Amino acid sequence: xxxxxxxxxxxxxxxxxxxxxxxxxxxxxxxxxxxxxxxxxxxxxxxxxxxxxxxxxxxxxxxxxxxxxxxxxxxxxxxxxxxxxxxxxxxxxxxxxxxxxxxxxxxxxxxxxxxxxxxxxxxxxxxxxxxxxxxxxxxxxxxxxxxxxxxxxxxxxxxxxxxxxxxxxxxxxxxxxxxxxxxxxxxxxxxxxxxxxxxxxxxxxxxxxxxxxxxxxxxxxxxxxxxxxxxxxxxxxxxxxxxxxxxxxxxxxxxxxxxxxxxxxxxxxxxxxxxxxxxxxxxxxxxxxxxxxxxxxxxxxxxxxxxxxxxxxxxxxxxxxxxxxxxxxxxxxxxxxxxxxxxxxxxxxxxxxxxxxxxxxxxxxxxxxxxxxxxxxxxxxxxxxxxxxxxxxxxxxxxxxxxxxxxxxxxxxxxxxxxxxxxxxxxxxxxxxxxxxxxxxxxxxxxxxxxxxxxxxxxxxxxxxxxxxxxxxxxxxxxxxxxxxxxxxxxxxxxxxxxxxxxxxxxxxxxxxxxxxxxxxxxxxxxxxxxxxxxxxxxxxxxxxxxxxxxxxxxxxxxxxxxxxx
Length: 566
Prior knowledge:
By secondary structure, the protein is an alpha/beta fold. It has helices spanning 11-21, 25-33, 39-46, 62-74, 87-102, 123-131, 147-155, 195-209, 220-229, 236-251, 255-261, 271-288, 292-298, 303-337, 358-368, 395-401, 425-439, 462-468, 532-537; strands spanning 2-5, 78-83, 106-110, 134-140, 159-163, 177-179, 346-349, 373-379, 382-388, 408-411, 415-420, 448-451, 453-454, 483-490, 495-497, 503-509, 520-525, 541-552, 555-565.
């Protein structure tokens, strides 16, 4: 792994911000690195306000979408709220359906089956809507490319409102309204909302138009969860929505989210807890059984009922972990057996791999072979794949160049899904390898760990660490700061933990005989168990780490999370 230090920001900007805010150099440098250079920008960054959210009617077609829903409410039409089976889709369905039900709407929710229907709008869902006399379908986190599906629904007398955040194709569906800031003709000021975020803007627009004055804060735990899970930039509106959403999660979470988090027994939850605890379990429902279980959990109003639902979802997650581990091992063996260790890309296939976990497997394969990766399995009489990319490589564009071999594909720069005829697999695999060979820059062929600042332990004062917590919530374009500290010693309190003894715990100290609290930190390295002997025998080492709070037996301490050790 290559370690890259970010360039130091201009000293004049750092000094100006230090004086304006009364902060030290570390905080000021981190802010300037994130594009925060003035007092006003810092105030907006540290103190997000709901009033800074954009007018929902600035989004193209919002007026049409709101008017159609108000008409449906007035006519007491049946409405289907449809969403993808992942975190973004299921949270969006939970948000929009629960809001509309409070307005007296006749609502049915629909999450497609990953295996029989696949990603996005399905003909089965439209037929089900027709059978239920549904006149309006609101599609969330999908639909932007569903031209034929929307036309089929129209032939049955069913209207569509599409709320999506993926890139549109050349032709848009003939829907009543299409809410997608990535539309070329949409001038909405922020185009990085997730699907649930678009759903929230729709609800916000309805609330304004209907003059309801609803307190929309309780819905933001769903938006924060989706924003964190969908890996969208933590900037602009996303930062505002996630900030208030995390406040809801910490103060008055909906029972479903509370049930997923409470086993951690923490007094304060962060985006990290959402990403590593809540999101995988919500996703597990759609991966192993049905995303409907997730919607049911997220719309429960009684904590006891939510706890019962969470037990089932926990079982799904346990099964998911076992499956993705075994499939990852099989895929790695396939790469070796096919003499593809030195390929520019990873493309693997087995008809028996579980479709629900191939996206996770693709991400795990990148940890071993750092390159654009596709994992295929059989889906009916077709092949389906999940694709993941590496930093700097536009996966969506690469798939476009190979689209002659595909039935359909969708996604964005770093993640995508696709289907193809099985007979096209060899030709696609060769074509994709060639595209990666031509387009992947040599500098992007090795994993790079970008470090914000090189610091000493003395610089990490209690005040600095308190202020650093206010940089949360973290996410793309506002990642958790990583620090490099050189020439540290191991105090000798190192040990291996975990069921497989693959996690490292030690005390990192500035000097071997140091006893000062602020110069000694507990350091935890998940997956760093193989470094145990090195640390025991090496005199000094350099450490790349993030600083996080650790809560144990009602005591909170600062702890280093190891990212690299040399």
